[in-house]
């Protein structure tokens, strides 16, 4: 399943590397992380990672394959 | 070895109440209220809200990383006059047993709970969890009862509770909270919503909640915070900054630090407001940029560590400037928090971001940093941390070596960390080839009861070790090897191998420093338990008792609770096998209680204790109780290959089946399921007696007698039962010979004397000497009454009943020996005494045929031949006849049928 996670603010390259399994694109005051999520555990893990890095998640949704 | 000042407060005495069940000292900093930095801003509105926590059972301080939850709660708690137990939860605490062990300890540290509370034994940290996998409900109930009985409440703060993600712990917390009444105020400080049923607490007005929005700084508060950092901003600027950071404490603090370094802080903050970068990410990079190259390097490298001191940081940077740099960083309150003494940690939020920077700036360095840390930690004696970093760095030889050299290999079998250690070493690949690695592999396989792999690894380790010299390292490895040898010997029923291991261990111990052995009492206790189990298997009861007693009395508190409980279970079995019912029961109960006190959720040793209780219940003919106990033990995971408990179970189950009249099932249950190197005389004798008794009941006395070959006087309890079968089969001389051969030597208990007296009484009775018979039965009754030993009387057969029914024996049996199946010759018939008599019995023609032949002492085979039917058909008729006559055995059936005039 593919997901995208919208994060408030422009993420630095350094911090984007904390999500090596996802691609990212910066746009209009947000950073969109997107890519394949293996399972639920991975999904919650990504959310926890955002939280532990102090990132503010605006939106998280599944996108069509 | 360098001496290091640590905040861990390592108590070296293993019996110290402050050691956790694995023998590792608690990390004192986890129970300390975090100190507030000089730049901490007390916000009265939040403190006032938190004061409501004192009137609700549950309080939730819920907010994102860096929202200021911990400092707020610590500041509030520091001002309370109540006892405050503080626990900073760590990632390893997600196992319920570990979590609760730390909670118990935090309550003890703050003085809310005496070390010997809840009626537990004093001093050795009793009444606390000792197994990582879980904690028994009875232990939690006793904690709740203890809190409920308090005059005033104790405040328990669980900081970073989000690290506990298992629903089980939330459930257990709610249970304790519900049953603690006014005695407990629980404060959860967490990033994520806990799994407790908050809606229920909310509806009942039992919840104080401080959430993210409330934690956010107002513009006034932000202005005050910045002033503490030496920045004076006009109101609109502070307001804009609050908008940009959403009032986030960490964001405000970082922007203060970053702005302070620029020439024009106000303009710097304006630019930051206009910027679109993520707050923490950007600000941290900014603050980092302002540090010297050395400081940046230091911060990045220590991000692999939970805690560090200057010396450890130097080991990672390979420089010698950490002390100065850390003092400076702490002074300006950037990134690091001081834990006390000279230990520090990175703020959790910054640590994560710094790690991301580390990976970018020094790609691939992480593993090496972990290994440098592991080597330093090993040198300095921090075993758990060494193992974690060794594994994280991928050097399992290093981790296994540290575990083995420290004599801590027993921790793979017992204590709080056994699960965590097993998981840690599960990642070990084939490249780890040191003897220590093979020992750890062998221990893991043996703990999982994977005998084949365990023995194979153990052999490899032994071969490697025999090639090394005698320096202390290999000595520790060899001693670890003897522990595994003893376990392997126990599991394969090979006593000589166990003795060899014990002797080698005794020699090796002399070459090791005492403090090492004292720190790991579980090693010795486990070794002794295994040796004792092997000796018990071989039937060397006195030798087994000597070593098991030492193991049962082993020091070390909860570090040795598992081997202690196992040894007590073995001792109970030993008493039972010697015929001491009451003693066996007391010991078994002590074993079960000890396991419950330690909260062991599924203790293998307590399983043996319950088995003995079941065996005692069978001898007392409390068959319902025996069934319940056996079902309980069936639910406990048994070591499949462990011969002693397996044989004990087979013995108890088969005797119960026998008394239920299930002779075929009894004979089947007693078949050995474990193949062993050495035969066990008691297990074989018990099995022979059960098989023989089953044959006798089925009406095959000759076969029954034949099966008794090999049952001798060296097994008194079995010999006495065998003699009983001989008499019943009409061979009083053989019975007398067996009884004469019994070597009692004062070590056998009432089960032997009672059984022997009854056999002699029957011989006397059948030879017409009623006076002697009565005298002997009277003696047996007196001996048996104290122990409530009923089986020998109730299963004795018809001959005894007239004796028991008449004075003076009637008085001796009164009150404890039910007269349900006894005849009432010589006394007025009491209808209730034998309800079966009230129901008219009608036997089928075939059933009567079979019974008539049975009365002529024909075996089932002979009857089958005589009637031209199969043996199974005969058995079917017999069973049906037994049921109709409400009896369980041949002699009773014949007697009852005669009484009823059916024959």
What does this structure look like?
The complex is a heterodimer of chains A (65) and B (903). The termini of chain A are close together. The mean pLDDT of chain A is 91. Chain A has helices at residues 13-16, 40-52, and strands at residues 2-8, 23-27, 30-36, 57-63. Helix content of chain A is 26%, strand content 40%. Chain A has one domain (2-63): Alpha-Beta Plaits, CATH 3.30.70. Chain B has 903 residues and is mainly alpha-helical. Among the domains of chain B are: 41-213, P-loop containing nucleotide triphosphate hydrolases (Rossmann fold); 219-289, no CATH class; 293-377; 395-519; 758-833, no CATH class; 839-899, Winged helix-like DNA-binding domain superfamily/Winged helix DNA-binding domain (Arc Repressor Mutant, subunit A, Orthogonal Bundle). A five-stranded parallel sheet of chain B has the order 2-3-4-1-5, with helices on both faces. Chain B has a two-stranded antiparallel ribbon with strand order 6-7. In chain B, helix 5 (167-179) links the parallel strand 3 (154-159) and strand 4. In chain B, helix 17 packs antiparallel against helix 18 (383-392), helix 24 (495-509) runs antiparallel to helix 26 and helix 28 (561-577) packs antiparallel against helix 29 (581-597). Chain B starts with 43 loop residues before the first helix and ends with a helix. Classes of the chains: A alpha+beta (65), B mainly alpha (903).
